[in-house]
Each structure stands twice: as structure tokens, then as C-alpha cells.
Amino acid sequence: MSEDVAQPAVTSRSVARGLGTTVLARLGAVVEIVAQPLYVLMFGLAGYGLYAVLWAAVNLLENVFDLGMTSAMQRTVPQSAGNAEAAAALRTAMIFGVGPCIIVAAIIAAFAADLGPLLNVADHDRELVTPAIRIFVWALPLWAFVEIATSALRARMVFGAEIRLRIVWEQMLRLVFAGLFFAGGLGLKGLFIAHLCSLAITAALSVRLLARHYSFADLWAGPWVTETTRNTFWAGLSILPSNIITRLFGDAPALILNMLLPGAAGAAAAGLFTIARKLSSVVQLVRIAFTYVMAPLAASAEREDRRQVADIYAYATRLISAIALPLAAVLAAGSASLLGLFGHQAQAAQAALVILLFARAAEAVLGISAPVLQVVAAFRQQLTASIFGVAVAVGAGWLVVGHLDPLTGVTLATAIGLVVMAAIPTLQLAMIEKLHPFDAQFPAVALRGIAITLVAGTAAVFADLLPDAVSLPLLGLIAVAAIWLALRFALPLADRMSLGKTGRKLRLFEHENT
């Protein structure tokens, strides 16, 4: 690996290049969505609910005990002076991110028999709970390793490296293993083992990718306590509360619903929320893709020129608006057909799905401010949104859960908190850092995008009335058409041209040169 050289200016084209490969990498989430109906079919709604609860618990624990090391590298690696410093950041992240997860997994495995009765499950799954905890808890250190490894690759601006890991190995192999174990008679236990197998293979392959972009010789050489080590550690701790609360919004509702309702009803409610969350993650994918790209690019731009940060911040917000708004509207209008994939029982999650879809759209438009704030603002400013977001969610839950069914009430409270948590960093950047994404170009983009969104949503409402076999592909076509129209007619020419060859192939502009 060669020593670092002067970095070129960070522009909208930089965002677009990173975005393309990152979207492909995050399509693993789409593969995961497609797999969920098969899991429900094989293991039943209550069995899937138990799996969803345990995976939610693992996700929550990982976000606590990785000590924020994934986010830390997004700040320290792009600003490192050379390979040795980057390797020091990776070493610090692995020690403090994976080490605690191994210890916690061992403790939970030892006390699995005491923890099992805390979960509400169907009667026929009761005997499986304790063995499942003992097996599945080892997903915790494996998942921490995979998260830190892939974050280290993104910090090196290698945005496409997750494609094979997230789609081929993690998601596809999980589905294959689950099908094989189910056919072999292992039942629900096979799903937990399949999850571990896919994570183990993903972790092993991520080591090979890390070796291409980090100097493993520097990983073990030199002093272990340096300024980079200290900066990485404290950067992780500073963002840890925000990471924990962000994960709470994704996974805590499933755990809360499982505790609120007894027996199989608790497991089913957790499964229904997870189904709604997985489907709404199609919109969330847009924000996550931009977040992964923006954090390291904003860190690099901040080192060179604050104006570069302002330019890519505004550009990303316009592009997100053109994609997320029509996509959310079409999926919400077609929610009944989408839930039909999971069986008749899943229709109980329709209100929850619609709420989450629009919350994720608002979060997508506002939420690009969070990674910008992480890399340009003081550490203490990053806690404000998390604290207010969770406080508003708890307050909303206290007000609405008793007046609505538990699933809808918990989902509505979660959605309100999500939007508040996304909006606060936007205000912070505008008031404290004098950065905001709503430049002179944004009003026209927003008005045209909303008009296209309304037309697409109306078309999707009528499509949803058709039989599922017809409505589902039609909804897909409407969503694709709506996004293309928004990109083509809502975005200014410079934004469309930044998409390069992809924009030309999609006929978003007619110019020969980009």
C-alpha cells in the first residue's frame, strides 16, 4: 500500500460515485426482506417472532458493547495521516468493539436458563428458548466483528466492498442454510444455527478484504497507545449514546411488544412489528446508503474546506427527497398487497407499516444531517438529538399506547421519536455550524417531487385493489417510474449530470459529456 497523497476536492460527483456502490451493498437488506416471508412460512409467525426478538436483543447489545467503534472509524480513519495511523484506529476498534461483546456473550450463555422465562413465546416453542439463547448469543461477537470490519472499509472510502459480504454470503447463505436445516428436521432451531453460519462465513471473508485496504504489519507493530488510539476510543464513546438510541428505535419496540402481550400473542406482535420494520427499511435504505457515503466524505471535506461540506450536504438532501418521498408513498398505498406476502395474519400490521413508511421518508430527508454533525461538530452536540428523540418517543407512547392497539400505539410513538431525532441535527447544523441543506434550489425540487409523489401514490392506491399477483409487480413498476420522474424533472441539471454514466443510461439528461 502506498503512502497517502493529497486528496482531491469532495464534490457531488464524489457522493454519487460512492452512493452507487453503497446502494448495491445495502441491497442485502432487500434480500433480507424477500427472505422474511419464507421464514414465516417455514417457522410460523410466532416462531419467527421469537427469532425476531432474539435478533433484536443481539442488535441492541452489539450497539451498546461495541462502544461506538464503528462510528469512530468514520471520523478518525479519513483524517489519519498514513497507513500506520489507520491501522491503529482499526486495532483500537477491534479490541474495544469486539472484546466486550465476547465477554457479554459468555455471561448470557451461562445465565440463559434464567433469562429464558422473560420472553413470551408460543407454548410449543417454550422448551426451545433457553437452548436458543445459548446458541444465538454467539451472534453478538460475530456481528460486532462484521460491523466493525465493514465500517473500516467504508472509512477507507471503499464503499462497494460490502456487496459480496452482505448479499451473497450473509443474506443468501442464511436463507440457504435455513432451508436446508428446516428440510433436515431441525425446525426453528435450524434458523438460529443458519444465522450463525452465515455470520461466521461473512466474518472470515471480511478479514481478507481488510487485508487489501489496511496494513496488517502496522496493525501489530509500533506503540499501542497513540493519539490516534485515544481519538478513536473517545470518538466511539462520544457517539455511543446516539448509536444506542438509534438502535432502540429499530429493535426495542419488538421487545416491548413481546413483554406487553402474553404467550404466543407477544411473539406474534413482535413478529408483526418486525415485518413492518423490514418492509419500511426499503425507504430507510435510501438514508443509510447516503449516511455511509456522507460520513467519510464530510470528514475529508471538513479537513480541506467547509464549503465542500455545505455543497455535498445540500446535494444529498435534494437527491434523497427525489427518491424517498415517491417510494414511501407507493409502498404505503400498496401496503395491503405487500403484507399479503406474509399471510393473512400480517394484515394486522398495515397501520404500523404505513406509519413507519412515512416516518422513514421524513427521517431520510432530514436524517442526512446526522453523519455531517458527527464529523464537523463537537462531540457533546451529538447527544442532543438522541436524548430529545427518546424522550419524545417515551412521552408519545405514554399518551397513545392505551388508546390504540399495542402494535399501532408502539409504532406511532417510535415514528414520532424517529422524526424528532432526525430533525434536531438539522437545526443544530443550521444554528451552530451555519450549515443547512435547503439552498435556493431546494424549493423547486420539493414542489415538483411532491407533485410526482401525489400522482404516484394515487396510482398505487388503485393498483392495490387488484389481486396480489397483479398488484405487486404493478406497484414495483409505479415506484420505479415515480423515482425516475422525480430524478428527471425535480432535480436540477447539475445534480442529474453528477450521476455520470448511470444518469446518461437512465436518460436523466441528454448531454454527451459529464
Automatic annotation (TrEMBL):
It is a multi-pass membrane protein. Its main location: membrane. This is Polysaccharide biosynthesis protein. GO terms for cellular component: plasma membrane. Keywords: Cell membrane, Membrane, Transmembrane, Transmembrane helix. The lineage of its organism: Bacteria, Pseudomonadati, Pseudomonadota, Alphaproteobacteria, Sphingomonadales. The keyword Amino-acid biosynthesis does not apply. It comes from Sphingopyxis fribergensis. It is found in: Cell membrane. Pfam families: Polysacc_synt. PANTHER family: O-ANTIGEN TRANSPORTER-RELATED, PST FAMILY PREDICTED COLANIC ACID TRANSPORTER. The keyword Cell membrane applies. The chain crosses the membrane at residues 38-61, 93-113, 133-155, 167-186, 255-276, 319-342, 348-373, 385-404, 410-432, 444-463, 469-491.
